[in-house]
Amino acid sequence: MQTDIYGQIIFDEKDLVDLYLRDPNKALKNVLVKEPITYNSDLDLINTPSTKIYENLSISIEEFDDKNQSSWNFPDTYKNMDIAKYILDQCKNDEELQRVGKELLLYQEKDMFMLLKYLKYLVDTMRENNIVWGVGRGSSVSSFVLFLLGVHKINSLYYDLEIEEFLK
To answer: What percent of the residues of the chain are helix, what percent strand, and what percent coil, each to the nearest 5?
Structure first.
């Protein structure tokens, strides 16, 4: 297994077979394979819908990021949700509504609504599976929106933290 300059994990034949043998039902989701040769005939792993042949791309990292911004891999129910409405519905008073409105405008300016939807999905998935995550780290705790989504447990209004610390 190796990682390319874009951060993609690429599996070789041995890695793919090991994944398959560990868990045939779950292991082969969105897997990139380098040089599939012998295992294809025996296990037919390469012809699964979510297994792809790795292509060495000759584009910049910025172009790679732009290309992948539209292909988030999470359920359509989250992709299609009105994340702004969801977050605004979490507010309990006018102070919270004003802060959320300010932050949502900043998130919108930076085209980060899909990220907020993904974070909602991630938090829900961790809760469903009883996965414990940290209280909060770094400048992200200055975002009241992330607090409302459950990404961290630091109420930035209570501690008077400015969103500009996070979305510089």
So the answer is: 50, 5, 45
